[in-house]
Amino acid sequence: MKADPATQLRLLDLQALDSGLDRLAARRRDLPELAVIAERTKVIDSLRADIVRVETEISDLARGQRKLDDEIDLVRSRADRDRRRLDAGQVSNARELENLQSELASLARRQGVLEDEALEKMEAAEELDARLAKLVAERDRVQAELDSSAARRDEAFAEIDAQAAGTRKERETLAPVLPAPLVTLYERIRSTSNGVGAAKLVRRRCEGCHLELSGADLRTVAASPADEVVRCEECRRILVRTAESGI
């Protein structure tokens, strides 16, 4: 393949633009904020699940407290009723009086047990409320970090995308003025060579694979016409000769 030396040098310009685009893509892909966002998102999801579990426990406990309060009210009402009968002297039979007093004692014991349970539930509710408040505060803290990281990510994306758009515009201007067969060869090599399709020959070294050409290869390159498109024997990239080539 033939291409005048100036055109081959322009191919290096195309390579520089493509390498710039690759670096921008890598920078966009590897932004530190992305790892932070992924980690904080996992933490947020875990905290939200914990909050739901605690809220469910609080709801279940509140339902149990209401049921317990209803039972305490029922016991108190029954005890009040029996006490009013006793105070009013409505019970004259000794056996019935004994039964009534026994029932009052039993109701008092039952009320004591229920009130102890209610106190335990109140303490448990306070612990759950404190735990929920702590979880919510932690969720809010992590959410703030997540929002901050997302804002930095979006700012970095906007900057990178703007640079990439400018670089692509330069590429779209340059590529069409180069010979189509040369660009096709360059693109084919670039797709299988880590994004580098053309490299300088600098001081007898290929800047694509960073290996020094052997004496025989160097002589072959030196003997090739200036408009001959030569390739590195090691990496098969297009090798562009410059004043720095050392030949």
Automatic annotation (TrEMBL):
Q: Which residues form a coiled coil?
A: 97-152
Instruction: Give the InterPro entries listed for this entry.
Output: CT398_CC_hairpin, Oxidative_Scav/Glycosyltrans, Zf-RING_7
The signal peptide stretch is none
Q: Where is the C4-type zinc ribbon domain?
A: 205-239
- Where does the record place the CT398-like coiled coil hairpin domain? 14-193
Q: Which UniProt key words apply to this protein?
A: Coiled coil
Q: What is this protein called?
A: Uncharacterized protein
Q: Which Pfam families match?
A: CT398_CC, Zn_ribbon_9
What is the native source organism of this protein?
Answer: Pseudofrankia asymbiotica
